[in-house]
Amino acid sequence: MKALKIILYILLATSLVGFGNAFFKEYHRLSDESEARGEAMEEAVFDDKPASLTSEDQEMDRGSDTSDGSPTSPSEESEQVDEPKEPLDASELADSAEDQGLDSASDTQESANAESPPNRIGWYLGWFVFSAVGLGILVAWDVIQASAKKSVDLIYNDDGGGTEGYDLYEKAEAAWARGTFIEAIDLLRSYLEINPLQQHAAIRIAEIYEKDLSNYLAAAMEYEEILKQRLAPERWAWMAVHLSNLYSGRLDQPEKAIALLRDLVERYPDTAAAMKAAKRLK
Length: 282
Hints:
The chain is mainly alpha-helical.
């Protein structure tokens, strides 16, 4: 599982960097192409001189050269008078110039589109967002798990390490090892007063009553107090099963055992202990 998570981290991080870089490169490329097309269209519309205007200008220039260079004969003058040149329509010239300019701009745009590679900015953006979201979910999950583990370790510090009054816990274990069980219980209670969240000490007291002193009623009372505390579901469930075994066995109180098992199944039905309790209740 840990190896799979590391692989996912590497893949998502690589994908995020790669597609992010590709997205920004594609964005800049499209921006440059759009700017270039705009400049090309402006040049085609405003700078290209229409062919019709050029031919008319040439004819006017030739007419001017003829009138300035040599005298015309009477017959030529009569022909010029009889066949006057049709006047140029300004609107037609403007339309012709505009059509030719637009055609040139259209040709320029078509050639630019044919030469440019396909637009993949949407594809790059989609994978970039997918990678970012996936990596964010993975990081958030690990942060939540780490925080939860730290909280559980703080509450259920089963060795008592790093807590205030830890020397009392060590003395209690030393007293238990010497066989002075009552002294061990007293030291554990003193430790619990300083660290009320360290319920492993309370469980240790119940175990000493049950296994070392064979005082099952006192042990049951200790377990009952433990179940009143806020415990993790699995831990609470197994404590309940253990107490129900005391009720149904040593204490001969089967009704209490059944009631506790039913409470367990209703409260934490998804735990392994609850499944075991459900089988016993059938």
